[in-house]
Specification:
The protein is α/β, with parallel strands linked by helices and about 290 residues long. It has two domains: about 5-90, Chemotaxis receptor methyltransferase CheR, N-terminal domain (Chemotaxis Receptor Methyltransferase Cher, domain 1), CATH 1.10.155; about 100-290, Vaccinia Virus protein VP39 (Rossmann fold, 3-Layer(aba) Sandwich), CATH 3.40.50. Helices cover about 45% and strands about 20% of the residues. It has helices at about 5-10, 25-40, 50-60, 65-75, 80-90, 100-120, 135-150, 165-175, 185-195, 205-210, 240-255, 275; strands spanning about 125-130, 155-165, 175-180, 195, 200-205, 210-215, 230-235, 255-265, 280, 285-290. The longest helix has 19 residues, at about 100-120. Mean pLDDT is about 90; it is low at about 1-10.
């Protein structure tokens, strides 16, 4: 470590985290502010150690000596790619097949039957997994569809899977999952719609044809042209502050069909103007007020 780096750590601003790289409260505020601006994720100084540990790897790979240098890079034009790397590093990806099973039970019992009946006459069906992580949620939705309509891929039925993390999207597109991840998938669905590949399981062609993966930042533009019959946005907005949550929920309303459902996480709640326009249709399931199937 250079003498300049040592002086920065020991004689400069007070450090939030003691370690290899100088990391001050000002550095944290700059990173937290940029993270919120770019992704909507809000973090406080209580997450300083987490931020340090995850971004220290980036500093090493870039050959930087302090977080001050890293913040300077993020502010420069040539730091645009690194901004995405920062978001990926600080994004939490927790997922599993059929997480919150009651949502999939509701989807199969209340939402899919009329939609799939209409699909057989040529009507489009669109479901959005917003914050899809490595694909286990959208593939769970697709498995629910296939359990009711095995030939769904031959109709205009699609699940849009979006996430801000391109690494997670790549895993979803590959469709390969270890035995531990496959545990929640019922045996009959696993046998029919996956194939064994060593110690892992690969999603079948029919399953992958139903799911379209795309990079999307919920804070950015939403280029989708069709409205959605169901939106799964679960355990995503919990990382946003109230103002950002309210804005996202309001935007969801603009892309929902009149009878669409919105599924959110068990610890989340609808905020802002959307709370006046939505009503419950089951535990953490919402529909537009006055809507009828």
């Amino acid at each position: 470590m250079s003498a300049a780096s040592s002086m920065s750590r020991n004689d400069g601003p007070e450090q939030l985290v003691e370690g290899e790289f100088a990391f001050s409260a000002d550095d944290f505020r700059r990173i937290a502010g940029l993270l919120r601006e770019l992704s909507g994720i809000a973090i406080t100084e209580s997450k300083a150690t987490l931020v340090y540990s995850r971004l220290a790897k980036r500093l090493r790979s870039l050959g930087l000596e302090s977080f001050r240098d890293y913040c300077a890079l993020l502010d420069r034009r040539e730091g645009l790619d690194e901004r995405q790397q920062m978001i990926v590093a600080l994004t939490t990806n927790v997922t599993r097949f059929f997480r919150e099973q009651h949502h999939f039970d509701h989807l199969k019992a209340e939402v899919l039957p009329p939609l799939l009946a209409a699909a057989r006459t040529g009507a489009p069906v669109r479901i959005w997994s917003a914050g899809c992580s490595n694909g286990q949620e959208p593939y769970s939705i697709a498995l629910a569809i296939l359990s009711l309509m095995p030939d769904a891929p031959d109709h205009d039925v699609r699940v849009l899977a979006t996430d801000i993390d391109v690494n997670m999207l790549a895993q979803g597109q590959e469709g390969l999952y270890g035995a531990a991840a496959m545990g929640p998938v019922p045996g009959e669905l696993r046998a029919r719609w996956f194939s064994r590949e060593g110690e892992a399981w690969r999603a079948s062609d029919a399953l992958t044809r139903l799911v379209v993966f795309n990079e999307l930042n919920l804070m950015g533009a939403w280029p989708m042209k069709r409205r959605f019959d169901a939106i799964f946005c679960r355990n995503v907005v919990i990382y946003f502050d109230d103002e950002t949550q309210s804005r996202v929920f309001d935007r969801f309303l603009s892309v929902m069909t009149p009878t669409a459902r919105l599924y959110i996480g068990h610890s989340e709640r609808i905020l802002g103007p959307a709370a006046e326009r939505l009503e419950t249709d089951g535990p953490t399931v919402y529909r537009l007020k006055g809507a009828r199937p």
